[in-house]
């Protein structure tokens, strides 16, 4: 199975940075800026891990995780949420996210979390 990570964030700079960082580690990254398209993108791309910003227009990371975890086909898909929000960790945990990273995040920690889930 290909190591593919789907990143969803409305910030183009974050998408570009994470794509470059993952590519340097030979991890294929696909991106989505519009959270409304995330479920279609997951179906098309079949990622091994999803990385989400907690706060996005249309659908929040919290809403996305809840829907993913309620769906039999995506309930086991690892989801990493990141946010600068003080309450972000609790919100992500309560929604069912597998991992949380505080912004600004340490890229090594992000890679470590991604790699843990890619090995499973």
TrEMBL record:
Keywords: Phosphoprotein, Two-component regulatory system. InterPro entries: Bact_response_regulator, CheY-like_superfamily, Sig_transdc_resp-reg_receiver. Transmembrane segments: none annotated. The lineage of its organism: Bacteria, Pseudomonadati, Bacteroidota, Chitinophagia, Chitinophagales. The keyword Phosphoprotein applies. It comes from Panacibacter microcysteis. GO terms for biological process: phosphorelay signal transduction system. The keyword Hydrolase does not apply. This is Response regulator transcription factor. The modification 4-aspartylphosphate is found at residue 53. Residues 4-118 form the Response regulatory domain.
